[in-house]
Fold each of these.
Amino acid sequence: MNRIISLNPGDKAVVERYAQSMDKAYKLKLLALGLTPGTEFTLVKTSPFGDPIEIELRGYRLSLRRHEAEGVLCSQ
Amino acid sequence: MFTIAVAGNPNCGKSALFNLLTDGRQKVGNWPGVTVDKKIGRIKHKNLDAKLVDLPGIYALDAWSEDERISRDYLLSGEPEFLLNILDSTNLERNLYLTTILQEMGVKMLVVLNMIDIAEKNRIGINLEQFEKELGSPVVAVSALRAGSKSIIINKIAELLKTDNKPSPVPVPSEIENASEENKDELLAEWRYKRIENIMAKTVKKGISAYAQSDKIDRIVMNKFFGIPIFLLTMYLLFWLTIHVSGVFIDFFDIAFGAIFVDGLRYVLTNINTPEVIISILADGVGAGIQTLSTFLPITFSLFFFIGLLESSGYMARAAFVMDKVMRTMGLPGKAFIPMLIGFGCSVPAIMATRNLENKRDRILSVFMVPFMSCGARLPVYILFTAAFFPSNAQNVIFALYVIGIVLAVATGLLLKGTVYKGSLAPFIMELPQYHTPQIKGAAINAMFRLKAFIKKSGRILIPIIAILGVLNSVGVLPAVGKSIAPVFSPIGISEENWQASVGLFSGLFAKESIIGTMNSLYSQGAEKEEDEEFSLVEKLGEAFVSIAENAKALGEKIKDPLGFELSEEDASLFENIRKAFNNSSAAAFAFLLFVLLYVPCLSAVAVAAREVGVVLVLLQSLYSTTLGWCLAVIFYQLVEGHSVPSIVAAALILPAMVLGIVFYARKSGRFSRS
Ligand SMILES: Nc1nc2c(ncn2[C@@H]2O[C@H](COP(=O)(O)OP(=O)(O)O)[C@@H](O)[C@H]2O)c(=O)[nH]1
Ligand SMILES: [Mg+2]
């Protein structure tokens, strides 16, 4: 199991499931944005400080904070 | 009236289409989520006469998010009879998610594929007829940039309204409806996206990546090493341009508005034999209020103009992306750096800029922090005092004042974050837009809107207050006020004989730069008084126009010598007076500057802040910063020079008591709470 927190630019990952601890409102938002289980995404770039990050999925780009998205459990 | 709601993801071009359809104007920006208020317009066309309501940009209709709840409640209220669902054609998969939800609700709607011009350019092939059939809702493809899109949309709506069968809701499979609570959300989203993937696979041909161009720029702009220097440089440039461009026009407004509304009004009223009291109220009161307001126009306009340019270029979103990690330590999102930055220019537009923050908590926190940034009006006071008392290291003292302000802003942020706002920050979701050529016209329209809002809303509060104070001033009450409040300032080293300084602080409420002018005129009183010259409007207006040319010339010189500032000869006598009044005490002078930095931001700032977060919180902020300023000034002066233990103890007790009081009130009243 991999965590978004340890991905580097260029890395690909697939969403496996959401951690139980994840904030419900945030989880619903990420689901609406297309991070459904089975979805592949690529970490495209990070801010110069390393966080937030930008990922590409379903043909578009989305920015997230690493530690907030920690509950998105994925595999590489 | 027949009502149509407009719904879609942030940045899909809703505002642009809304403007096109209503022939009206609305803010068009690059921030996801710019549209927070409910905006209403009207379609007037030979085939359709209807009211149009712009919903906030949303991704779904969950009850958990405020914007989505607003939209959901509104759609279910029954008021809108028809819905325009706007989609970004270059990002169909995600945009269709909202469409599937609307279909499950059985809303009568038209799906509008916007930005079709970009989709065509990126060679995204959409088979429209088949797409419509697979989706099961009527569809049109348009570009908000093409004028013909208006009639395409309107004619299609008119056609759909002729038949009035409501679409039947798309059913959610029962195994998902009946799934356990913990899996349901995932299953439902997965099912919707499967449906979308299916439609897309059959009807949409993928184009070329739209990100290639922006990625090239970002490789430099967001680079690990260059990213931060580029950010700092851009902000410095933004700031420098704003201050200096507005600086060219500020005297024009001051002189011209003063000539018309103060001197001109007085002249006219005198000539028609108006009683002196009324002249005083109208000219020295209301007229002076309008004049004060007018001096804020150039800086407000130019700040929002340059920010609009940067926003439309796509860089502003990146700046927020870069700053996020830094701002987060204070419990604020990345884009909250914008009001802080603007605060170094002027608190008024800075506080107005807090509107771009989605959460109330972020807006309140920012309103508490912004006034600690040393604004442009405080700088002349710093310059004069440091030149008089610290001639050999004036720069360092001024720099220290800026740093103290920043440190206190951060401390305030941390204090509120640690006590009132214990909950974690709202999760951050953001899209970095593509880079575009900056839009000059759009930025100018935008800045005009901000300007009008400022005049309308702040004028209502500011002009009456300034009118009252102006009248008090003109009947000569101020020295008495100054003398009566002087004892309050004696612990910070301002003796009671130096009541002129108290009056200066009082007049600083209008605008902090007037502290110097007031003190100067009071110190030199008894000397020659300015002769009443014959009033000539033409001459004054001429003078106003000349000031633009002069300031522009001065700007040219400043570009050659960006850090230099000069003190004129007249200042020399003022130096003498100030040194005498402050008993040659540099400790008292610094304490005074500390207080100038921290006490109530000017009334204009208070007025705009009242509009953003309410009167009570603004009064609380004023109380907070003024008490803080007083206590710190007392402690500093008494430690260095006064050595009065009771004063130190009093200040050291008042400070924590005030902080505790505010925290206690904040928690009890719930006024600070999230919503
Ligand atoms: N090329 C192109 N740009 C568009 C179109 N519609 C909107 N835009 C631009 O896309 C950006 C976001 O539009 P806006 O109306 O603010 O989106 P909103 O957040 O949905 O209200 C703005 O810079 C618009 O000028 C379109 O059809 N074609
Ligand atoms: Mg909008």
Amino acid sequence: MSRPSSRIARRFAALKEQGRGALIPYLQACDPDYDTSLALLRAMPGAGADLIEIGVPFSDPSADGPIIQAAARRGLKGGSTVAKVLEMVGRFREGDSDTPIVLMGYLNPIGAYGPERFCADAARAGVDGLIIVDLPPEEADLLEGPAAAKGLDIVRLVAPTTTDARLPVVFDHASGFVYYVSITGVTGTRTASSDELAAALPRLRAATDLPVAIGFGIRTPDQAAAAVRVADAAVVASALLATLEDTLDEDGRATADTLPRVLAQLGDLSHAVRAARG
Amino acid sequence: MQETQPDGTPAGDAPARPNSLRSGPDARGRFGIFGGRFVAETLMPLVLELDQAYAEAKADPAFRRELDYYLKDYVGRPSPLWFAHRLTQELGGAKIYMKREELNHTGSHKLNNVMGQILLARRMGRTRIVAETGAGQHGVATATVCALFGMKCVIYMGATDVERQKPNVFRMRLLGAEVVPVTSGAGTLKDAMNEAMRDWVTNVRDTYFLVGTVAGPHPYPEMVRDFQSVIGEETRQQMHAAEGRLPDIIVAAIGGGSNAMGIFHPFLDDASVRLIGVEAAGRGLDSGETAASILRGRPGVLHGNRTYLLQDADGQIDEAHSISAGLDYPGIGPEHSWLHEIGRAEYVGATDDEALAAFQLCTRTEGIIPALECSHALAHVARIAPTLDPETLIVLNVSGRGDKDIFTVAAHLGVTL
Ligand SMILES: Cc1ncc(COP(=O)(O)O)c(C=O)c1O
């Protein structure tokens, strides 16, 4: 169901031709403020991001671990709203029309904005896909229509607990890529072993032709490389947010170190991902 | 327990009539537009498994027999329906009955639900229980049954609540539970709920999430309601025995809504019975510091279900405020949201101060120290009873006893203990 015309599909097709996997870094909007996070967003493709996930801060991130929880709090304190996130994507698009942007978040802020209006404004701003953590396939009709009408991919999450019998339900209406939550747990805690990943992927491949990204628990360049050896993309979130948090001053403000250190780490991850299948 | 309605038709366990308001939720777990299963994919297979396990248990007479045994000999049911003579006199109007849920083992209605769910968890082969708690009553009830059955128990409790409900924290630890203070957010029930969900998603294989109210993803709202409906079923029979008819008004406090749902549900199809849920108005309904999800919230999605929530324009969930830790939650069970929208139940507010006054009124006139939660319901009864004639029958659900609250009340009265 991947629309050949979509930015996400084009990016994965191009990477496939180059014979390498994708690196998908994550940042939380307005963490710790709008300008810093826009600057980080703009610099990510140059540092090796193939696609970018932007977290939409929510007051109650019940599937996230302490690092993303803290980033969400900083984002909200930094003035994030759904409208601000879309504005940020629009500004990013002024200088980059190729790097796919996927928004990741929880349903309620989108519900409050209005699903139809949200999809229209997101598509206009240049968003390519949505990952809504608390919107399982059983409830997704709420957003599927408006998203499809505006050409937004809905990225489905698959977990180790997802049974084989359930995979067709999950992949029905999936588009863009599939996000494999590689551990049972919240973000930024445990890391799946290469054996666990190697065991998990064949059953996903058998059930979908979409590219598969692995996320939750990928922190190091080695882990990112291991992920793209079996899958099509590696998502790195908490490790980058932890670095960002580490560069903030006592009042939680960005410092001169913030961008360079996060981008340097991103560069290391990118090298590993590019060399992984070499 | 069989019973006959005034018109001769059986009630209680009778199958819901067509067009019954008692037939919800639908197959998707919805009450109208409310409810559903808004959880992460990792949890979805578990929620579906729970749905099936509960449906099987519900249809199994052996499960019912086992639950009835524990309800009678361990919980101490049935709880009495007490005619509150002096309170009735003092207020000078409607005749007030109290459904004495505070007399249950562990001191509140919470054990009705917990007893049902722990038996289900055992049927499902789970060995580790996690739960969220606000006032600590649900945590104490959960820790109690874990002690009874020798199961591992982890209770998440907001750090603020740990502070204001110290006796219950100690009680839980005595019972062998691990109490984990949650410091995210304002450190109240909503944060404890988030943390319990995080634990569940991390320990899916052996862990059962024992939800304490009629909220969360389907089937929790239905299941908790079913387990709490024993309150309303007994009330129906007892009122019939005492007065030979249905009550006119039933009043209950609303945190997540389980004690209210439990006493309302068996009466949903009796149009003559007014059902009134009392939300915590905190420092006043328009103070911005309330826990009145229906009166001051709008529909949204949190903790697995669509329901009325206190939230800002951007859909960020607001912190609730109530003097009562058990009502301090920015949401409400989805079935209440539906009953509100269809107009079958009424929802009103009572402030911190009104609850404090009612707490003292009950203590002085009836010799019953009520929990601050149900003191909110009593505050509303005190407001309406004087305006009603003596033929009017009101039932107040006394959901818990107030021993746990004496420190909070003393502090508000300026007394140092
Ligand atoms: C005594 C008592 N009543 C009421 C409540 C509120 O919960 P619910 O609305 O689910 O009955 C609590 C919650 O802790 C409680 O302890």
